[in-house]
Amino acid sequence: MDLISLDEFLLDYPQISLARKKDNEDILEFYRKLEMENSNQSIKYDRTPNFFKFLEYSYGEYFVLLLKNKKNEIAGIGTVIKRKLHLNGVLEDVCYLGDLRVNSLRYTILWRSFYAEFIKKMTSIKEFSSVKVNYTVVLAENLKAMKALSSHKNKFYYHLKANYKMVNIIAPSFLVKQSHQVEMFEFSDMENQFLEREMNNHYLMISQEELRFRFANFYDEKRLYKVLKDGEIVAVFGLWSPQDSKTIEIGHLSSLIRWFYNFSKIGFRAPELNKKLKPLYLNNLIFKEDMDVKERSLILSSIIRYTFHSNKMDHYHFLTIADFEDESLYDGYKWCYHQTVGAKLFEVSKVQEGLIHDSSSYLSLDLSLI
């Protein structure tokens, strides 16, 4: 089969082009206008002053697609990030489809038509010919996007892989003792053996090469850690925030969280509604194989307690984790002061059947780069 380049594919779509760095201000302005039109959303993201910087953290190739109107103004945007992730024990090329925004029904129809052809012909485009899976994430509250996903007019398929919650932990529980020891990760022989053995047991986990790159280049203070039980490594995790490239705003806090900040004297930084907040993300949580939910919940509880009782949270408002419905670690944070946002993880495919997720492997999702 002869392959074509992405530029050649886009020749059939004169209104759609690849973004360049010079488009930065126009992209940010497009986002600002959309945010004003959707002011009722409980969570918002801000990519100023450089839209592209956040994408550069992905350790892969990224492509920003712009839909322009007749005045050459941006009417829609979508990003595609290609990177190597684990699929059922094997490292494969995977694409994350994100940042999808369109400003009107007319352009939604045009974008949907383009998107369908793009997904259908992806394997014949040079840049994506090796891609095994596309995936995307949608907030559960985004009813408009959910309706579009379920439309039979798409000509491609969204396969639900998991329901999950983005959990923002504002303060730890003082009722639960730390059951596991947490130490700095040093890439010793024992630690390298753990990574070699366990990383491929996590669906959508990054490569060991990317993990080393993060450790060397942008994990603040070498923030990679190991969790021990009786001297044995049972988990590894990273702490990081892309706060220099992406901040968030929260439009609602539960009454319990508001009560906590009104009456507690603990001194954790209180989030202000509709102000820029700084989350610290729990990344690349790698568990030892065949651990039950109870044991993993205890590990998570120890990680949370360690993170808050060290100086790790001094410059952040909360610790953010992903908790999957089918293998929920709720017991690990249920006594913490926390806020949750529901979301769904989808595989996007041109065929009716999605790639089967090996149920023996843990799901992994890098929230900090979504």
Question: How is this structure best described in words?
Answer:
- The protein has 370 residues and is an alpha+beta fold.
- It contains nine helices and 16 strands.
- The protein has helices at residues 6-10, 24-37, 51-55, 105-121, 143-149, 189-198, 208-217, 255-263, 293-309, and strands at 16-18, 43-46, 61-68, 74-87, 90-102, 131-139, 157-171, 181-184, 202-203, 224-229, 232-240, 247-250, 279-287, 318-324, 337-349, 362-363.
- It has a twelve-stranded mixed sheet with strand order 1-3-4-5-6-15-7-14-13-11-10-8, with helices on both faces. Strands 2-12 form a two-stranded antiparallel ribbon. It has a two-stranded parallel ribbon with strand order 9-16.
- The two termini are 33 Å apart.
Give a brief description.
The chain has 370 residues and is of the alpha+beta class. It is built from nine helices and 16 strands.
Distance between the termini: 33 Å
Q: For the report, how would you describe the main beta sheet? A: 12 strands, mixed
Strand runs, count: 16
Strand content: 25-35%
Total count of helical runs of at least 4 residues: 9
- What sort of overall outline do the alpha carbons produce when their principal axes are compared? globular
Order of helices and strands: HEHEHEEEHEHEEHEHEEEHEHEEE
* Average of the residue pLDDT scores: 87
Helix content: 25-40%
Structural class: alpha+beta
Q: Which spans of ≥5 residues are poorly predicted at pLDDT below 50? A: none
Radius of gyration: 21 Å
Q: Within the largest sheet, what's the order of strands?
A: 1-3-4-5-6-15-7-14-13-11-10-8
